[in-house]
Amino acid sequence: MTMLFKTVTAALLLGAAAVPAVAQQLAPPVIVIVDMDRVVNESAAGKQAGTDLQAKAQQLATRRTTLAGQLQTEAQAIGQGQQAKTLVGPALDQRVKAFQDKEAAANAELQRGQEDLGRSRQYVIQQISTAADPIITQVMRERGASIALQKGATLQHTASLEVTNDVIGRLNTSLPKVSITPPAAPAAAAPRN
């Protein structure tokens, strides 16, 4: 029994010694961290696009104010006509209908403007992300990294893992400007009968 115990113990010790040897053969993964929000917002292309998008948003806000003023003026005129009893019957109905049509058209215009602004933002992010991908791959190769993580996916990390500034610097050289005008959406296919 003692001999069996010694043999089993020796086999277990040899097996346990072999596991760390195998584990030591695998190099630990090298990770780099990239803050893509900073890449989009702080790169030259991102700053330029941000300025352009802000101007576009301001134009939309100005248009909203203009349309609201026009609708308010029309609503006041209808209200005054009702009070003075100069706007009654079919004339009132026609004027109210025209007002409702203008209001619906204004809301539709503003909705299209908001959607266009959203598509423009997404297009900017897409262009910057597409241009940043090969840069991140190059930085990974240079650092011997096998994994690149978005900063938001980490709980904690050391500053030495973060390569965001390097990515931004290289992106500024390769992509100094982007367009805020997305390509036209493909036309919707006609329904088949």
Question: Key features?
Answer:
single chain, 193 residues, mainly alpha, Protein Binding, DinI Protein, Chain A, two-stranded parallel sheet, 2 strands, 71% helix, rod-shaped
Short description:
It contains 5 helices and 2 strands. The protein has 193 residues and is mainly alpha-helical. The longest helix has 55 residues, at 89-143.
Question: How does this structure look, described?
Answer:
The protein is mainly alpha-helical and 193 residues long. The protein has one domain: Skp domain (Protein Binding, DinI Protein, Chain A, 2-Layer Sandwich), CATH 3.30.910. It contains five helices and two strands. Mean pLDDT is 88; it is low at 7-14. It comes from Sandaracinobacter neustonicus.
Question: What is the arithmetic mean of pLDDT?
Answer: 88
Helix/strand order: HEHHHEH
Superfamily (CATH H level) name:
Skp domain
Give the C-level CATH assignment: Alpha Beta
Total helical segments: 5
First-residue to last-residue Cα separation: 86 Å
The computed structural class is mainly alpha
Helix and strand arrangement:
Layout: H1 2-25, E1 31-34, H2 36-42, H3 44-83, H4 89-143, E2 147-150, H5 164-174
Helix pairs in contact: 2-3, 2-5, 3-4, 4-5
